[in-house]
Every structure is written in C-alpha cells, then in structure tokens.
Amino acid sequence: MTVYNKASLVLAESPAYKAGKIQPYYPLTPDVSFDFTRATSATRVNASGNIEKETQNLLLQSNQFDTTWTESGSTGIITSGFAGYDGSNDAWQLEHKASQYTSIRQSVSTSGTQTFSCYAKAGTLDYIILYAGTPRAWFNVSSGVVGSTTSTIDASITSVGGGWYRCSITFDGSITTARIYPNDASGTFGTTTGTIYIQDAQLEQGLVARNYQETTTAAFYGGITDNIPRLDYTDSSCPSVLLEPQRTNLIGQSEYLVSINGGSVEYNSSTSPEGLQNATKVI
Fold first, then answer.
1. Calpha distance 281→269 (Å, rounded)
2. 281, 272 in Cβ contact below 8 A?
3. What's the whole-model pTM score?
4. What's the pLDDT at 119?
C-alpha cells in the first residue's frame, strides 16, 4: 500500500486552494475543507528556494497609453501598432513636438519605496525620461546608459534585445503622477522634435522592477495576496500548507535601509533571497 493510500488527508498545490478556502486533493468531498482569513499579503519559499512576494502593477491601462494616460504639452503624440520587444505589435510611438514638456502621464496616489519602469526603444530621439514628480531619470535608449538622475534610490537600464531596453527608477516617498517623456539629451527637458517607442509600463512597491504584469481598468495584485494560503516548499519539492499564528514585522522600511551609522550603502548591489538584484550592500 502506498503512502497516498494510507493517508487520510492529502493537500496539493493545484487545485487545492482559492481565496478563503483550502480544498484537499484527497478525499475529494465537499465537506472536508479549511476556511481561513488573512487581511494582508504574505511571502513564502517557492519551488526554486527563493522568497516569493505579492506582485503588483499599480498603474491602470499599463499598455494602453491613449486611455487613462493623458497627453501633455501637445495632442496627437501617442500612436499604437508598432513592433514591440516581445514580438508583438503592441508598442507605441511617443512623439516630442515643439513644447519642451511633451509627455504622457497618469495620476496616481502611492507612497513608500517604489519602482516605476517602462520598456523603450530609440526612434529619431535617443532619450526617455521616467518622471514621478521630484524623482526622475534620463535614459539613453540608443547606447543603454543611465543619464542624469534626481531624488532616486536607483536607476537602471537593461537590454532586452532588438534595440529595446527596460528602464526603471526606484525612489521613496509619496507621488501623484507617473510620466514618460521623449527627449533629446540628458539632464534637461529638450525641445528637439522626434520620436521614441514605449511599451508596458509598471509601478510597484519595492526596490526593483519585477516581471511585468498587464493591467486594464484595475491595478494588478498577484502571488500571495489576501486570503490566499501560504504553500511552503522549504526542504521539499512537495509543498505543504503553512498555517501560522498571527505575526507582525514592527520594523518600518524593512528592506530600504535609509540611514547607516558610520557607513554607506549600495542599493540593488547583489542578488537577494528573492532571486532578484535587490540586495543592499552595507559599507
């Protein structure tokens, strides 16, 4: 007789859970289930051994730049249907007209440590500006170089092939707008007319841009969200449901080390237990 046959209760990752309920894999009877609640997101150790968190995209219409996004400085500056970084025709052409403040923008209301990112490619202009109020950075999407920055924790540009780059800024504070500008130089809002290409914008909590999540009329929250049970792979390729007492992390900014006594820090310096380039080096 196998261990499975001997077991009185078997839990598997899929389709064992949904919001607020864990349904056993065996026995398959409707009266055998666990109800639970958790009012916040959580973490877990996933099958790769990394810490997994809730994923987010707090922007609306994250790749539909003619909807909840507003043209500023001029009109008719955003056009759809161009070849994207992912082999689709979902990229957009963003035009810089005579006004030095030509941009598209979306109103937001977020706070804390955040990362704003967008994929971009040079057209007749070489620069894109990601702007979140005071935090901002210039990126050369021809050479793949970060230009001037203001009030950012970090700014990065990563090639994804075909002349496309993923540009991101990380900052701490409250913001009311997310903007994307085409530009002709670093450190200034230029006046040269021309174009760049953009695709897939994202705003999320944390020190690094994670996998892009598409949104339409609502923000995206995925992974270990409210009322989803934690499945823990620690020391096993087969996950177990992790049922725990209530606990709270009382340390504010538990990953963003704002002040170091007698030293300095380098943010996003190395790979963290999440498997992402968001560990902080303390010097």
1. 6
2. no
3. 0.84
4. 98
